Amino acid sequence: WVQESRELFALMNVILALIHPGQYEAGRKGLRLCKNFHATVSSARAWESVFTAVGIISNRVTVPHKDIGGYLPWYDLLFTCGDYDGGVFDIPGLGLEFSYPPGAVVAICGKFIRHHVPMVRGNRVCCAFYMRKNVQTWADSGVPHWSME
Length: 149
Prior knowledge:
alpha+beta, Double-stranded beta-helix, two-stranded antiparallel sheet, 4 helices, iron, oxidoreductase, metal ion binding, 2OGFeDO JBP1/TET oxygenase domain-containing protein
């Protein structure tokens, strides 16, 4: 799966580099260290994402929630794909609702902003890219800051 996802990983890396260069550089530093650390070298050499984790959500309604895995104040990137209609990305606390068609990418500080995705007609998969705090702390990638871009 990781080998087949190289293009998706590259796309998410480029998007992150554009919207939050500091987070991108911290992720690159962490990945570089993992590729040279004896305990992680074999897995990390196949991994091309600057994000330290990817969650896969398939055909699931997500109730309004905040993400527990991310690293405040950095972005999570959510990529959705599949064969479905009627996709909506909702931020109820702000009264915002966005179209969420196949191929959409959403950047959100999921640990800070409550969000949810209701049921769709068809089959939907979401790849949620995020940074794990413990990896970034281990990599000493610096104190995370809000994006100023």
